[in-house]
Amino acid sequence: MNFDANYFYPVTAEIFVALMVLAIMLATAFARGIARGLAYALTQLTLVVAALMTLAALHGEPGTATNLFADETGSFINMFVQDRLGGVLKFAVYCTMMVALLYGRDYLAARRLDRPEFFLLALLATLGMMVMITANHLLVLYIGLEMMSLALYALVAFDRDSTRSTEAGMKYFVLGAVASGLLLYGMSMIYGATGTLDLPAVSQAVASQTDKREVLLFGLVFLVAGVSFKLGVVPFHMWVPDVYQGAPTAVTLIVSSAPKIAAFAFALRLLVGGLSGLAAHWQTMLMLVAAASIVLGNVAALAQRNIKRMLAYSGISHMGFMLLGLLSGIVEGKSGLTNDAYASAMFYAISYALMTLAAFGMVVLLSRSGFEAEDIEDFKGLNRRSPWFALMMLFVMFSMAGIPFFVGFFAKFAVLEAAVAAGYLWLAVLAVVMSVIGAFYYLRVVKLMYFEEPDVNAPLAAPPELQVLLSVNGLAIAVLGLMPGGLLHACGAAIEALHLGS
Amino acid sequence: MEFKTFVFYLLSAVLVLSALRVITARNPVHAVLFLVLAFFNAGGIWLLLSAEFLAVTLVMVYVGAVMVLFLFVVMMLDIDFTRLREGFWKYLPVGALVGVVLTIEMSLVLGGKYFGLEAMPAPAATPAGFSNTRELGLVLYTDYAWPFELAALVLLVAMITAVSLTLRRRRTDKWIAASAQVSVHHEGRIELVKMAAEKTEPSAAADDAAAQP
């Protein structure tokens, strides 16, 4: 057995984040007085450096899908995959986490929640997502998911003196544990049928053997259930509104954004990378899930008075839309759909993260110490109080509703195009009808902001960095809507580099 | 019937029965003890499969550490189990229906054909002196080093979570800084000051005090 430090080179970013977690833990234990600020600063620094590392790795090998650690002596076999998809998604996750932590910082400080552990858990959640995004092995996929989920459960319950926060954490934990169990059971069935946990090997085994179809399908049902839970789509969506509402808004920011990108990567690696031989089956399941999510998400959001719950239901429908892209990739008798379909889903996941960050960022912006801007009514007359941020919220709401020339429009357009190209016209029509219904609750917020008098006339008292970044975020939604080419191209190139057959 | 088969069925039967008792036992302490019994039987089945390391770890870690901790928790917490059991009969029909359907489906898929003895032939016999533990260690620290290290970090998440959700510093806490206590020196405790001997001279105040009683 020979051992070479070079084997570790591809995971430098992961190792760096893990070491920084330990370093921050030690540093904050000794630096009592400045622990909170120090943990925050070091966390942001870690994310920036990790992002640079990932960018450097992306730059080094443009567009090649290489399985590193593949080595004839048999160490670290194929567990980690370094490709363009992993690089782009990891970069998106770092950026999302950085923005979410920056938005949430003042909110946390006002509620004395910015203990160093918060930032440690956020970093560990990020590490879990990085592991999921680059996993090439069922075991690694599962461990990454658990690392992310456990850290998120803790973050949701972080406000331990609030019953709502602890209840939300408990609910998320129990349901999440059941979902993990389902996923693990499905994986064990796949292992039982194929005899391997390595995703490319699973893919080969599924393609070559036909005698264990029932076992594979049986496992697949559990896998799809587990993935659906993590994405928060119907019928595994029950936790989403309660968790979004119960968690401190700074945590909702984290839970609603970056994990969705990671869950997309999880679904892509598992279903497309490992089980494309069963595509006809999981696509049918996802079709039902997507249709139900789009309908229920949009209809239930109409009835919400609490903006966090409304955004939760809107998130359910957005994840349904994202699935539209994921389920349109492989159709019998049609070729050339694959790349466009998965690229559209990837574009959707990233642009949804951008929109949800801005939306919850606005909720944080309106909250102050001792006051949570949770009701939709709290947005009343925002135009009087701050015309600029009312405009930003208008951008976010228009984009989420899919009104043209915002990024949300192009995301919806791309997935619908993929669904129509795959021949699922009914699904596309349903999605369009539902998003027209959904436009009502987004526009209601806009109406409240512009056409009603504010209850309070206090000017917004948010720290300047939050105001600046939120403005950048809002403008990014508008600019990416006008010029979506760059991001579309990045997604397309990342998917193309996977060399999926069609 | 081979003796090994007999042992397998015996262990399995006790395992399933004790697992059932875990969820039906009225007394939570009994439930925990039944769980211990279930773990012992599972360990026995691992032994039959000649997975000695797993058998020993199961007994040592689960029975030795986790279940003892569990027993402590059950005894210390005052949980109202009659309240937890409320609604049992209300939910039973639905739960039982789902359970039965699932069991039938699972037995259709898993029974016999795919995971039977024919489909899963026994692995080649291992030579004498074969060490299960050594083999596990070899793959764990080489092929599986990546997930192994990550699993350690998952435990770190659990540790940070447990501390951050439960540790509270109150003003009334009677905690001692162990490092300060250990590093204390006798000079730090008592300061000996040299003073000239003094003679007490009777004063007016002392006279008053003496006169009081």
Tell me briefly what this model is.
The complex is a heterodimer of chains A (502) and B (213). Chain A is mainly α and 502 residues long.
Protein model, in words:
The complex is a heterodimer of chains A (502) and B (213). By secondary structure, chain A is an all-alpha fold. Chain A has one domain (5-496). Helices cover 73% and strands 1% of the residues of chain A. Chain A has 20 helices and two strands. Chain A is globular. The relative contact order of chain A is 0.10. Chain B has 213 residues and is mostly helical. Chain B folds into three domains: 1-86, NADH-ubiquinone/plastoquinone oxidoreductase chain 6, subunit NuoJ (Four Helix Bundle (Hemerythrin (Met), subunit A), Up-down Bundle), CATH 1.20.120.1200; 87-122; 133-166. Helix content of chain B is 67%, strand content 0%. Chain B has ten helices and no strands. Chain B has helices at 3-24, 28-48, 52-76, 81-84, 88-110, 132-140, 145-166, 178-182, 186-189, 204-211. The mean pLDDT of chain B is 84.
Descriptors for this entry?
heterodimer; A: 502 residues; mainly alpha; two-stranded antiparallel sheet; 73% helix; globular; B: Four Helix Bundle (Hemerythrin (Met), subunit A); 67% helix; elongated
Radius of gyration of chain A equals 22 Å
Largest interface: A-B, 40 and 25 residues
Class inferred from helices and paired strands of chain B: mainly alpha
Query: Judging from the principal axes of the Cα atoms, what is the shape of chain B?
Result: elongated
| Average pLDDT figure of chain A | 89
Q: Helicity range of the residues of chain A? A: over 70%
Sequence stretches where pLDDT stays below 50 over 5 or more residues of chain A:
62-75
Write down the domain tally of chain B: 3
| Low confidence ranges of chain B | none
Distance between the termini of chain A: 39 Å
User: What's the CATH architecture name of the largest domain in chain B?
Assistant: Up-down Bundle
